[in-house]
Design a protein that fits this description.
Length: 356
């Protein structure tokens, strides 16, 4: 009796109808199932009988109180998706390496401080790994062996660098590492398309990213960058570049030939001054030229983020019902609007249609 044996092994302190007992009693009625979901169930344990679910391909126990993984989980050889986000794991046991069919692994919202490097070597099929909101200070060198990994999320950890073990991943397309302490980014990135480094400790945009031929979106907002050099101007393949919230002091002279997706330094300054004026510091307005005062006076707000709009970044329309509809008239009319950034336009694509 696998269920009864596990229940006895937990001790008498566990109530007969605790969330764990109730969930696993029902789950064991169908051990041949291919999908097992127990998210948000107040579970605290995964019993040894999990090893009997050998047909499982998807297993989700997100948002519970699980702190350990039993050795028997290594029997789930067909498992392709494992979701253990928002639990109480402090370590990832070596048995994770026995899940050789694993493609998606969610471990965000735990208390992991290290990863079992030798076990990760076995995960040749892994394409997506989420480690957000843990306590990782480094990534193991063995991660370079995750040859199929396409998406890596390490937001809000304690990383100080992105070293070669990540930069050399041959299939990595998306990397998000916001909210760390990253001051160094290694060279490499053979397939990277989107790189997010918001809220870190970078003092400049890494020059070697210029040679990342596949990179299309780069976000270095809220870092410590004081110099915006020629890299972003030479990197013409970029479709989106975000650098708001940096203490810029110098910008390259060649900014006069900047691509259209980079806001001018003048625009950033005017936006800052306009915000100051709105906060009551109207004396700043007298220091501007007549043309600049006109730009400030004409500034509107982005419909998505409400930031001041000092240039036409993206033009779009939204179809709305008019106040009164005449007989035979259209039920919807196009309303023109402007966005301050590519990011804001993408955030509202369900409501707006881009104009060529």
């Amino acid at each position: 009796d696998l269920y009864g044996g596990w229940r006895r092994s937990l001790g008498v302190e566990m109530a007969a109808e605790s969330p764990d007992i109730t969930f696993w009693r029902l789950a064991m009625k169908n051990p041949k199932t291919k999908a097992l979901t127990g998210s948000h169930r107040q579970l605290t344990h995964i019993p040894p009988c999990i090893g009997q679910f050998t047909s499982l391909t998807k297993f989700s126990l997100a948002s519970n109180g699980i702190s350990t993984l039993p050795t028997e989980m290594g029997e789930l050889a067909k498992l392709t998706e494992l979701h253990l986000g928002n639990n109480k794991l402090t370590e990832l046991p070596p048995i994770i390496g026995r899940l050789v069919a694993l493609e998606t692994l969610y471990l965000f919202g735990n208390s992991l401080t290290t990863l079992p490097g030798p076990a990760l070597v076995q995960l040749k099929c892994l394409t997506s790994l989420s480690l957000n909101n843990n306590q990782l200070s480094s990534l193991p060198d063995e991660m370079r062996n995750l040859v199929s990994l396409q998406t890596l999320m390490v937001d809000h950890n304690c990383l100080t660098e992105l070293d070669d073990c990540v930069a050399s991943l041959p299939a990595l397309r998306t990397l998000s590492a916001r909210g760390n302490r990253i001051a160094r980014v290694a060279a490499g990135w053979p397939a990277l398309v989107e790189l997010t480094l918001i809220d870190n400790s970078l003092t400049r945009v890494p020059d070697h990213l210029e040679h990342c031929a596949t990179l299309r979106q780069l976000d270095v907002s809220l870092n410590k960058i004081t110099l915006l050099d020629d890299f972003v101007l030479r990197k013409t393949r970029l479709k989106a570049f975000f650098f708001e919230g940096n203490p810029l002091q110098t910008i390259a002279k060649s900014v006069r030939q900047r691509p259209p997706w980079i806001p001018s330094l003048k625009e950033l300054v005017l936006r800052t001054i306009t915000l100051s004026i709105l906060e009551g510091q109207r004396d700043l307005l007298q220091r501007l030229s007549e043309d600049d005062r006109h730009a400030v006076a004409a500034a509107r707000k982005c419909p998505h983020c409400s930031r001041l709009l000092l240039r036409e970044y993206a033009e779009a329309v939204r179809f709305e019902a008019p106040p009164a509809i005449s007989p035979g008239g259209s039920k919807h009319v196009p309303v023109r609007t402007l966005f301050c950034s590519h990011r804001c336009f993408l955030a509202d694509t369900s409501c707006y249609v881009a104009l060529p």
